[in-house]
Amino acid sequence: SETAAINTNIVTLTRFLTEEQTKHKEATGDFTLLCHALQFSFKAISHYIRRATLVNLTGLAGQSNATGDDQKKLDVIGNDLFIAAMRSSGKCALLVSEEEEEVIYFKDQGGARYAVACDPIDGSSNLDAGVSVGTIFGIHKLEDGSMGTKEDILKPGSELLAAGFTMYGASAQLVITMRGGTVNGFTLDNSFGEFILTHPDMRIPKARAIYSVNEGNSHYWEDNTKEYFSALKLPQGSGKPYSARYIGSMVADAYRTLLYGGIFAYPADKKSPKGKLRILYECAPMAMVFENAGGQAVDSKMNRMLDVVPEHIHDRSGIFLGSYDEVEKVKQFHK
Ligand code: P6P
């Protein structure tokens, strides 16, 4: 009958966070409130991205950000929405954004115990082409007694309390994980205005013959990196070479890799010896998601990505991210 087809036990992100909180007796509810502010910013950014073309929000905003990228109007709106959500939550002591050269300290937040790193709209250079972009975030807990300083966020990714991203694709897909926890995927249902649990306990396939890298940089790759990617282009045990898939938007490439398996890479090279992707709000949060889903993430020296400690808030790193066995293969070529 019609009623049998309707799921009346819907797990929204709001409910999921409440259930998570009750698992931790010492929880004050502050993390839950911070995550409510987070999820609102994803809903708001999703809203504006869907309307960008219609209300002519595309095109340059005439400013450039900390990393020198041309800022698109949506970058500015996404950043402002995120800052407002974090400030109004009253639970965020400091915020690092890709769009802000300096740390933002929310001084008027008495009991705020969290430090947040984010890239409000990662991959924004693809916006006008209608390619999926996303928001990447990491949440650190302040050291006991700390009032919130840069040191609270210049930590290895292994100390992240939570991390994840929202990809604004056909629908807004949120992927979130807690330190040592499982990876859970939610899909924004616009009619409810709620993120619905659609991908509980995500596990990345152990191996998959898909590689995702910008071949346009291959002239600058180190020799061992060149040898690695050349080896993938030869017929494998299956008789077939790897497939190449590169979108150029980290959240989209990462989400496909998480679901299908394979390897995503942005190697450090002779042109960018420190790599391109930023540690605090691209590499580290993605590394925690992938490790908790059974995959791996390493930098160009094969260090575990979650062990890398940034010196400055916009520090970059090379990264190989993906299926457990695929990263093992990377290591074989980068001894
Ligand atoms: P390239 C987008 O600008 C970004 O920061 C990531 O989202 C993406 O993975 C990477 O840079 C793409 O860089 O050099 O391949 O265009």
TrEMBL record:
<protein>
    <submittedName>
        <fullName>Inositol phosphatase</fullName>
    </submittedName>
</protein>
